[in-house]
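// run 5 | inverse folding | seed 20
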């Protein structure tokens, strides 16, 4: 008996990011921006729980390579893998097959395109019984729509170039205090500039920034002047006006500000911390890593992993260790495709300012 034909679904593309960061072991995680595949209006990546990967349609690949990847999806170029299989998602750090990739068989059926036999692949050959994704596909796309969506990417003015949101402006009184945060943000793949204020910057350049970090030491008058300059330029930048006192936390705050995806397409919805309790709202099943950072009066930073496991959709509450209650405390929630940062609210308490784990003065924005 022949298999029942796959039902028609709509095909689209949706902007997505893989947030970068500085992990607790000091390793860097690269910031990547790409176009995700949208199936009936829902990003395909959301169906693949806990997959840390990017599609081949990444913004930071060269024009010729990007066009070649589009043509592979259009079946105008040979597949890169045996058995006619094509890469749907790859490693965000190197995109090498050795790190693993989601692959699928893409074929024509008359005028239609069909994606089927999804699998996790780490070598040239794949066993669908062991590595397949049951319940994912097959998907049948109407040929005219499919070709129109992907064909637009081949036009020189339609390719997702380096988006303006990748640029970050750090504003503070001392450039030396901003040097390490700037270097770290550049290290994860973001464009970063440093300035004392925004008054002398032309409007076109102000509009190129996606995030503006305003140092803690600037007074309200100086902050207001920065906001006015960006408003007058017609900028849509997000302001981080209470930057965290350590670099990994600041990087997480910037990544949170860079995430412009619709609320309905996010795994992490809300993060709050008060009175020693952390509350996190999750939209989709995912593995979440919660990390606490406590900066004490001696400018030392204590780091602790509070949770690292799968969470179901809904609100979850976690009690923090009392050892994380000795200063200014932050919590970072990180999962595939999203990061949230919050500061522990403690009414009536003054917060400390910190230093790094190496015992040196902290990199506090001023």
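// decoded
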């Amino acid at each position: 008996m022949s298999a029942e034909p796959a039902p028609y679904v709509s095909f689209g593309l949706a902007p997505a990011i893989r947030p970068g960061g500085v992990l607790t072991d000091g390793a860097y995680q690269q910031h990547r921006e790409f176009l995700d595949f949208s199936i009936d209006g829902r990003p395909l990546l959301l169906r693949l729980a806990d997959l840390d990967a990017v599609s081949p349609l990444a913004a930071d690949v060269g024009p010729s390579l990007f066009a070649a990847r589009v043509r592979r999806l259009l079946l105008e170029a040979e597949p890169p893998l045996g058995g006619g299989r094509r890469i749907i998602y790859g490693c965000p750090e190197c995109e090498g097959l050795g790190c693993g990739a989601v692959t699928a068989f893409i074929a024509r059926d008359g005028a239609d395109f069909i994606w089927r036999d999804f699998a996790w692949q780490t070598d040239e050959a794949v066993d669908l019984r062991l590595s397949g994704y049951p319940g994912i596909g097959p998907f049948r796309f109407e040929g005219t729509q499919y070709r129109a969506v992907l064909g637009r990417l081949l036009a020189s003015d339609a390719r997702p170039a380096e988006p303006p949101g990748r640029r970050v402006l750090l504003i503070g009184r001392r450039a030396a205090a901003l040097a390490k945060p700037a270097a770290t943000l550049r290290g994860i793949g973001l464009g970063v500039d440093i300035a004392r204020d925004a008054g002398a910057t032309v409007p076109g350049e102000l509009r190129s920034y996606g995030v503006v970090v305003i140092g803690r030491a600037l007074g309200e008058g100086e902050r207001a002047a920065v906001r006015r300059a960006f408003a007058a330029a017609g900028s849509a930048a997000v302001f981080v006006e209470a930057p965290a006192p350590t670099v990994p936390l600041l990087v997480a705050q910037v990544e949170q500000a860079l995430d412009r995806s619709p609320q309905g397409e996010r795994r992490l919805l809300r993060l709050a911390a008060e009175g020693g309790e952390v509350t996190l709202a999750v939209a989709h099943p995912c593995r979440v890593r919660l990390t606490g950072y406590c900066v004490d009066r001696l400018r030392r930073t204590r780091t602790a992993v509070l949770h690292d496991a799968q969470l179901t959709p809904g609100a979850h509450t976690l009690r923090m260790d009392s050892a994380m209650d000795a200063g200014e405390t932050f919590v970072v929630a990180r999962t595939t495709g999203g990061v949230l940062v919050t500061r522990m609210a403690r009414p009536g308490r003054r917060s400390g300012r910190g230093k790094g784990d190496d015992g040196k003065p902290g990199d506090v924005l001023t």
